[in-house]
Amino acid sequence: MNQKKKVLKDNASIYGFIFYFAALLLWAIYDFFVNDTIGLQLPILFIGFALFLWTKFFYQQKKAKESS
Questions:
Q1: CA 1, CA 64: separation in Å to the nearest integer?
Q2: Cα of 37 vs its chain's centroid, Å
Q3: What is the pTM of this model?
Q4: Rounded Cα gap, residues 4 and 45, in angstroms
Q5: Selected residue with higher pLDDT from 3 and 14
Q6: Residue-range domain boundaries for the chain
Q7: Cα–Cα distance for residue pair 28/67, rounded to 1 Å
Q8: How far is CA 30 from CA 5, 33, 36, 39, in A?
């Protein structure tokens, strides 16, 4: 895969995560004000955020090892 495709793939994953993050966060805030409880949205959001950061860190480390 050439460099341009890698950059496009990285950008697509970031935009997808931003949508996922915003949708779940807004849903959690709405649910909190309407029902006065926090549903499963926040645990799903935090687990997804942790997975996103872990994969980003893993690929950054892999890229650093390959370039060395």
A1: 17
A2: 24
A3: 0.71
A4: 30
A5: 14
A6: 3-67
A7: 41
A8: 37, 5, 9, 10
Structure tokens given for 1: 């895969």
36-41 long-range contacts, CB within 8 A, separation 24+: none
What is the rounded distance in angstroms from the CA atom of residue 33 to the CA atom of residue 54?
A: 31
Tokens of 39: 């549903």
C-alpha 31/C-alpha 27 separation (Å) is 6
Residue type, 41: Q
Residue-wise pLDDT for 14-60, tens only, equals 888 899 999 999 999 999 999 988 888 889 999 999 998 898 898 88
Q: To which residue do tokens 């650093």 refer?
A: 64
